[in-house]
Design goal:
This protein has seven helices and 15 strands. The protein is an alpha+beta fold and about 250 residues long. A hairpin with a 2-residue loop joins strand 2 and strand 3.
Length: about 250
């Protein structure tokens, strides 16, 4: 992350934000000589430091400070896009404790039964930029649809369709990849759809508007950020420097 314009912070705040303990715990650890800054033992954890330039050591280990985390998750079905839930597993339940200290949250949501790209971060400004209705950030999905998706549907989506609540969607780009007949004599179509807004259950409701049903849905991109096809369901990793640049963040 760029450090332009950043000020110093209390040492205990820096360490507690990284999960090294509460301020009360860090006060005891500092008095025990466990914390050093630029090679000098610091026994007052209220001391102000520059976490990006000062060398901070905890029990002999040099810490790497960062304010934000950016995580790409291949969300599996059955997990909800929330920070907590009383009944179901959430996407945060998939993360290691080392990431939870940053208090990340999902940027937008995917339905419980939908899989694919989900960005987790604690960068509220980025989340706003990606989710703002005024930005019209494109989101691309792959889907399996029950029924034959045809040229009439493609043209309808290109004009926008009217949902069940009367809302008329923005134009969307529908690509029909294949149509096949299953052994149970049901026709299904494999499609790719790019939408430019994020209404509740939008992809499913758009196909319902043309009398068809989505039976499988996967998000593969959000803006210019593409799902890593090497990430298995439920797997995650931090964004690469190149991907950070794509979403307007730098290392």
């Amino acid at each position: 992350m760029s450090t332009k314009g950043r000020s110093t912070q209390r040492l205990d705040k820096v360490l507690s934000n990284l999960g090294y303990g509460s301020r009360a715990e860090l006060k005891k650890l500092a008095k025990a000589g466990m914390i050093a800054v630029n090679g000098t033992i610091v026994k007052d954890p209220a001391k102000h430091v520059d976490p990006y330039h000062d060398r901070i050591e905890f029990d002999g280990e040099v810490i790497q400070y960062r304010e934000y985390v950016y995580i790409m998750l291949h969300k599996p079905p059955g997990v909800i896009s929330a920070t907590e839930d009383l009944r179901d597993r959430t996407v945060l339940d998939l993360l290691e404790p080392a990431y939870l200290v940053f208090e990340p949250f999902p940027v937008g949501r995917l339905d419980k039964d939908t899989e694919g790209l989900l960005l987790l971060t604690n960068d509220g400004k980025l989340a706003h930029e990606l989710l703002s209705p005024r930005k019209h950030v494109p989101k691309t999905y792959q889907a399996v649809v029950e029924g034959k998706v045809d040229e009439a549907d493609r043209l309808a989506f290109a004009e926008g369709v009217t949902l069940d609540d009367g809302y008329h969607t923005l134009p969307a780009e529908l690509v029909i990849n294949s149509t096949e007949h299953r052994d149970d004599d049901v026709t299904v179509s494999r499609i790719t759809l790019t939408i430019h807004e994020g209404k509740f259950h939008q992809v499913k409701r758009m196909f319902e508007a043309v009398d068809k049903k989505v039976i499988y849905l996967k998000r593969i991109s959000m803006g210019d950020l593409q799902l890593d096809d090497q990430l298995e369901l439920g797997a995650y990793r931090e964004l690469t420097p190149e991907e950070l640049a794509v979403i307007g963040r730098s290392t």
